[in-house]
């Protein structure tokens, strides 16, 4: 499951302190680098919002390999992965220790890296989305509107629920050994996914899409209990 994020700084339009209280992180094109993996549901939403806000040319990106081995996320060539540009990293944990040499916490994606200061800005996907939404408008991003500031409390409350039952819900359902527990989390996942879609836009996902997601979760559950594929499947969907 996803633990609380270790890095919670903020990029702002003028470099003033964000919610974390740390200043000096001004939104500038090509200053920041985003680490993601296509195997991570938290990283997905930063990729989606990066496209929605039109900041692809401002925020460059690296993809970690989908398979997570004993040393965590890697940049092993293949299956869409790309090299880690920070200190020629071959493992994502090297990016964390480049920012904080004594770091011993959970190594996760997404990671937003500040190339100017040589530091991690944030590894909290909800915060990264907030930065993309509000900080880069003055330098060419799409006008703010996906997360209007006047609706911040409502958005934060919805995000907290989605974090628990949808993002974390994938893992809670897929990794449960007991069928009843898996079913309980799967029902919560389906219900809150439908709720989130109705709030955002009914055209983003259809009921068929949700069914496909649930089938994938069920398949991962079956594979995770198979003696021949247990290690690979579990590694692929945990961190």
Question: Overview of this structure, please?
Answer:
With 239 residues, the chain is α+β, with helices and mostly antiparallel strands. It has 2 domains: 10-139, Glutaredoxin (3-Layer(aba) Sandwich); 149-215, no CATH class. It has helices at residues 41-52, 92-99, 125-134, 152-174, 179-200, 207-224, 230-237; strands spanning 32-37, 60-64, 111-114, 119-122. It has a 4-stranded mixed beta sheet with strand order 2-1-3-4, with helices on both faces. Mean pLDDT is 74; it is low at 201-239. This is Glutathionyl-hydroquinone reductase YqjG.
CATH class of the largest domain: Alpha Beta
Number of helices: 7
Give the neighbour order of strands across the main sheet: 2-1-3-4
Number of domains: 2
Give the helix/strand class. Answer: alpha+beta
CATH topology of the largest domain, anyone? Glutaredoxin
Alpha-carbon Rg, integer:
18 Å
Beta fraction? 5-15%
CATH architecture of the largest domain: 3-Layer(aba) Sandwich
Shape: globular
What is the percent of helical residues?
40-55%
**Major β-sheet annotation:** 4 strands, mixed
Averaged pLDDT? 74
The CATH H-level superfamily of the largest domain is Glutaredoxin
Q: Please count the beta strands (DSSP E, at least 2 residues each).
A: 4
| SSE order | EHEHEEHHHHH
Ends distance = 8 Å
- Low-pLDDT windows of residues: 201-239
Using brief descriptors, characterize the structure shown.
239 residues, alpha+beta, Glutaredoxin, 2 domains, four-stranded mixed beta sheet, 7 helices, 8% strand, globular, oxidoreductase activity
């Amino acid at each position: 499951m996803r633990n609380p994020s270790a890095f919670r700084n903020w990029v702002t339009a003028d470099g003033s302190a964000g919610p974390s209280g740390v200043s000096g992180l001004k939104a500038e094109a090509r200053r920041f680098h985003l680490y993601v993996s296509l195997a991570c549901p938290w990283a997905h939403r930063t990729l989606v919002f990066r496209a929605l806000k039109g900041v692809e040319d401002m925020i460059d990106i690296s993809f970690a390999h989908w398979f997570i081995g004993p040393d965590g996320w890697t940049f092993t060539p293949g299956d869409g992965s790309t090299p880690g540009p920070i200190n020629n990293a071959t493992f994502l944990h090297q990016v964390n220790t480049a920012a904080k040499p004594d770091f011993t916490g959970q190594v996760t994606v997404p990671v937003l890296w500040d190339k100017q200061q040589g530091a991690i800005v944030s590894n909290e996907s909800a915060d990264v989305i907030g930065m993309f939404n509000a900080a880069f408008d003055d330098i060419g991003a799409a006008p703010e509107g996906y997360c209007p500031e006047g609706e911040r409390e409502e958005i934060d409350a919805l995000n907290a629920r989605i974090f628990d039952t949808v993002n974390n819900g994938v893992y809670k359902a897929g990794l449960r050994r007991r069928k009843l527990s898996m079913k309980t989390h799967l029902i919560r996942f389906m219900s809150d996914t439908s709720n989130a879609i109705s709030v955002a836009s009914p055209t983003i996902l259809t009921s068929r899409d949700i069914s496909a997601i649930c089938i994938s979760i069920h398949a991962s559950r079956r594979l995770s209990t198979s003696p021949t594929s247990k290690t690979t499947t579990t590694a692929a969907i945990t961190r």
